Amino acid sequence: MTSHLLLGIDTGGTYTDAVLFSEAAGVVAKAKALTTRHELAVGIAGAVEAVLEKAKVPVTAISLVSLSTTLATNALVEGQGGRAGLVMIGFGPEDLKRDGLLEALGADPVLFLPGGHNVHGGETPLDMSALDEALPTLASQVSSFAIAGYFAVRNPAHEKRVRERIREVSHLPVTCSHELSSKLGGPRRALTTLLNARLVSMIDRLIGSCEDFLKRRGIHVPMMVVRGDGALISAAEARLRPIETILSGPAASLVGARHLTGLENAVVSDIGGTTTDVAVLEKGRPRLDAEGAVVGGFRTMVEAVAMRTYGLGGDSEVRINDRGLKARIDLGPRRFLPLSLAAALHGDAVFAVLEKQLRATHAGRHDGRLAVRTGLPDHLASGLQPQEQALYDRIGMIPLALADLLVSTPQKATLDRLVARGLVHICGVTPSDAMHVLGRQAQWNAAAARLGLEIAARMKDGSGQPIAASAENLAEMIVDRLTRQSSEVILQACLGEDGAGTIDPAASVAVDRALKREPGIVRFSIGLDRPLVGLGASAPVYYPAIAVMLGTDAAIPAEADVANAVGAVVGQVRASVTVFVTTPEEGIFIVNGAGASERFIDQEQAFGVARHRAQSMALETARANGAEEPAATMWEEIDAPEIERGRRLIEARFTASASGRPRIAHH
After folding, report:
1. Do residues 366 and 401 touch, judged by C-beta distance below 8 A?
2. Cβ neighbours for 288, distance < 8 A, ≥ 6 positions apart
3. At what angle do helices 186-216 and 40-55 cross, to 10 degrees?
4. What are phi and psi of 567, to 5 degrees?
5. Does residue 333 have a cis peptide bond before it, meaning omega lies within 30 degrees of 0?
6. What is the pLDDT of residue 187?
7. Percent of residues in the chain assigned helix, strand, coil, to nearest 5
8. Gene3D superfamilies, per this entry (predicted)?
9. Region for 511 from its dihedrals, namely left if φ exceeds 0, alpha if ψ lies in -120 to 50, beta otherwise
10. Would you list the DSSP string of 279-299?
11. 105-114: burial string, b at 16+ Cβ within 10 Å, e else
12. Is 402 helix (H, G, I), strand (E, B) or coil?
């Protein structure tokens, strides 16, 4: 039973999950540990040790390790990463103004060299003298290099020569644009290459810390990483092309959803503490973003799942607007530390504040809210403004009532800045607390959740009435709001996929009437054409009601809380290669891609060579990416319009795709 266990690890922003999986029995054991951002190995070790302990198996039973992560995505969103030097071959400074390249470059150095190729792969001579002059200085200022050449996807010779020279002199990691994408569009390819170069050291650290831990534990097996399109690549390849791991976490959850539910077509929604991610499964595959993944506001050329992320989760702030005749509740986008969790961590301090506020004759503006440090290391709290520092010094590791902390109105804005920098958590009422009051969740402290909701329920609406009759009553209102807001974001994502993204479900009267099932002479109804798969630890408590509102079936797998880690081990290795045939003049056919340019005078011969090249290169790449016995499929697109004297070839594209299961260790 214990032979050939696969170990899946997912390092998310909050938790690191580990799963032991066998092809025969499915999930054998699962465990979670808090992600330790400053020292990733600690979180990985915590989760893996816990899962091994639960399964009671020896490390020799593991035959493959696979990792999915949101770290690359988070790093780009938060603007982190190393400094990179960009070398542009055959481009000019005006090309930086396209596709957001200048903005992405920021203060990083850029160098322009004469050279590059034309659409048929013919070259403009390469001149490297400016590079030789600048390299010694540049190498001391950056942690990696990115190279983008004009039409390098048709002929990468110049990129390769520049790469050799940089490696010779600097010994730093170098990324070439032709290794990342075969699509035309120089500036966007340069942008993708630049972002890749910035991520190299960070993903290198993650994979390194994972490998070190495995080595220490005596787990000597192949290691894979999930790519943004859900396919697997070997750890060695992920180190060279870390940009391909952006959106790796969401992609893994889709592959996991497909495996755990067996559904070919579904809408998959993953609810975490902070965000909800929505994506579509089509014919068993994640729907990919045709334009390329957008991360941190930049559109890259990376093939990745079309995933939409919204600031709504179980730990979202509950905002109560009491100005109208009836109070309105809204959730998010900020994340709070739930009162039930704050009390589980700091019991007495939290209870003392809440009980005192509930006994007071007059309700205060900041009742039911406390502040506490997040515990980030000191060096990350440097560079604060004097008023921020003064407030930060008053907040400790024990939660403090906001009513006691904020003595003037401007301090509220100062506190918000400390929260945005990740230095302080605000503790307050969240949907998780409402679920504790209703008895549908029980992992933290329900008594503190009840006190928080009793305090909030006393608020008066515009007509002078309390906004809710009891804590239970308010809890139902909050959960109803979460059901409604989740339904809206799922509809928004699906309308976007349908090309109807201009409809805003939150503002549409028609959608409102359909979701409320309001009677009327005109009946509106709305529904999804496929089941809704709910993922995340709290999916079983929220998603049945959301599916009912959306008029579809809910599919919530038993392992919904670790779908990412399951997706990491059940994925396939996939590689695609495209080879082009163009005609610069009548009767001449040039083959480009997957090797040096070749000229032919016979069209069929050129096509045959192109097919062979694409197929053998795809199989070779899949094996390099870690596939055991890949199989290839082929498709071709030929642009040859009819003109007076018969058909004239403009361009033919031959694409081969090879896929297979990853190689495993045979003990």
Report:
1. yes
2. 229, 303, 304, 305, 306
3. 50
4. -60, -35
5. yes
6. 84
7. 40, 25, 35
8. 3.30.420.40
9. alpha
10. EEEETTEEPB-TT--EETTEE
11. beebbbbbbe
12. helix
* Nearest C-alpha neighbor of 445 from the set 545, 341, 558: 341
CA-wise closest residue to 482 among 593, 606, 331: 331
214 burial via Cβ count (<10 Å: 0-12, 13-18, 19+): buried
- What is the rounded CA–CA span in Å between residue 206 and residue 73? 13
The whole-number pLDDT of residue 141 equals 87
Strands of the sheet containing 370-373, edge to edge, are: 337-338, 424-428, 370-373, 400-401
- The predicted pLDDT at position 354 comes to 93
Residue type, 83: R
Q: Is 445 exposed, middle or buried (0-12, 13-18, 19+ CB in 10 A)?
A: buried
Task: Find the length of the chain.
Answer: 667
d(CA 569, CA 255): 9
Residue with the two structure tokens 């239970």: 472
Mean pLDDT of 94-100: 85
- d(Cα 40, Cα 400) in Å, to the nearest integer? 30
Closest CA to 181 of 102, 124, 241, 239: 241
Q: How far apart are CA 552 and CA 581, in angstroms?
A: 48
